[in-house]
Amino acid sequence: MSKELSLQETGAMLLAAEKIVLCTHVSPDGDTLGSTLGLARFLLAQGKQVTVFCDDVINKSFSFIPGIELCERPVEGSKLQTDLLVVIDASSFDRIGLVSEVVEAKILLNIDHHISNERFAEYLYLDAKAAAVGEVMCDLFMAMQWPFDKEIATCFYTAISTDCGSFRYANTTPKTMRNAAKLLEYGVQPNEISDALDVRSRDTVEMLAKVLPSLTFAYEGKIAYLTITNDLYDKDVQTDSFVSYPRYIEGVDVAIMFKAVEPAVTRVSMRSKSVDVSAVAVAFGGGGHLRAAGCTIYAPVEEARTQLLEALGKLV
Amino acid sequence: MSKELSLQETGAMLLAAEKIVLCTHVSPDGDTLGSTLGLARFLLAQGKQVTVFCDDVINKSFSFIPGIELCERPVEGSKLQTDLLVVIDASSFDRIGLVSEVVEAKILLNIDHHISNERFAEYLYLDAKAAAVGEVMCDLFMAMQWPFDKEIATCFYTAISTDCGSFRYANTTPKTMRNAAKLLEYGVQPNEISDALDVRSRDTVEMLAKVLPSLTFAYEGKIAYLTITNDLYDKDVQTDSFVSYPRYIEGVDVAIMFKAVEPAVTRVSMRSKSVDVSAVAVAFGGGGHLRAAGCTIYAPVEEARTQLLEALGKLV
């Protein structure tokens, strides 16, 4: 169980340490990277010795984030002693990969916004109402009267805008908008950020061209799905966004993406407007949220599809 | 030449009239519709006699905007006398279609945010720094202390968020964000708005599936284009967004969409990151902006493609 800190206590703990490791979660997104790198920039300017760890490949679309070159992957078997390890935007300790083995810290601090936070760290600052840890960072900087500059503001703006789908998701609050307004005052260029984030690889668009013709409707158009057959599947091609194509078709309640990652292993992601897809995902050994869930079905894609559609058919 | 009004004078003019016609521009977008309908709701609540004219088909995706059922198309040959005609978000008089012939108004007021405004109206409120007329409406309501409710806030939020690409375009300012924050406080659901706006017809996604395989690269990947051949072309299917697929591919500077609307008539739209595509469009008798332009080439699609790529090849 963690001791929950105030913003002032969190700020004081960061200022008290000399040697600091900041770490993102694996599968790094804009929030974990932007929040970590904005904080790193401030702490470096204070003369702190800062290491930034990210135990995963970072998507090229994030290469514009100021300070992205600071991110290092921890090396298996190595050891790094530090005053303070700050785990940012991870709700459980297993979300930081090798960092948990490599870093030996006197103090472990977790800064997060997930309601599912597992309170694994000794100290915790948690704001489950924040749309992003980027918002928590804005609050922290304002509470501590730490200075923003264009780079820090760009980091936190990226963090906020990516985690609320560019202010399109339900987690967008008036405070989210006011934090974003404040960051824009430091010269953040929202169009440069969104252009950088929207870039897709040629491979991804070419894969989309091959996958989109598989669009199929079921249950009078209430379910729509795409299929990546095993011969099309390429682990190096980003296809996470593809489920949005069936999702936004009028009349569709449940959108599904079937991905035959092996001849007899099918990965499934589901999005819904009203149906509880997490219940269906859990029934197949997966999980997720009410309207966004996934599972892996150990069957060839045609069979997986039949099983899942049967389960979903009872709900739509 | 128009007399430019202050917000207070604009508000006073609206309150002084009893019989008011509000009108949107043709090819109505979220800004003209949201701004017009939010203002209409307030004026109706003041007991005014309000007519809302929109001389065009309204895209189904806007059907969620509160008050959308108020929009009427003016009838050719009819006449409507009114105290005040308010033209909203149109920078020239020819942008309101038949409304200019049908309505006989004592006073003509134009509320706009386009820097290219032609000052056609007797009275004008123009804020060329506003991302949307929806922002002007927020300013007007606040200056006049007119009350917002959830419906009015939803109208203006739709107006603002559509005209700044959901806060992703360069016109998004700190003030844009603070106006949006204020509107969210009245219970606007940003996710419901974006879900409604993102909906695409089944036809559009099925057409995309047929068109995307035509993706072709030229000039070492600096140009990418899609082609809708004449046999695929269907005037009833929305394909305006398709050019974004080549546009956001890494390394692409110029993205083009060729549409064979007739066997020997090819419509071209171009988007660019650095090349001045408007110059190329003008050379083919078209026009547009530096980074978004279009033209019609009176040739079969293969020939049109060859001509345009040759012209563009000198620039990339």
TrEMBL record, chains A, B:
GO terms for molecular function: nucleic acid binding. InterPro entries: DDH_dom, DHH_sf, DHHA1_dom, Oligoribo/pAp-PDE_c-di-AMP_PDE. Residues 238-314 form the DHHA1 domain. Signal peptide: none annotated. Residues 19-160 form the DDH domain. Coiled coil: none annotated. Pfam families: DHH (PF01368), DHHA1 (PF02272). This is DHHA1 domain protein. It comes from Phascolarctobacterium succinatutens YIT 12067.
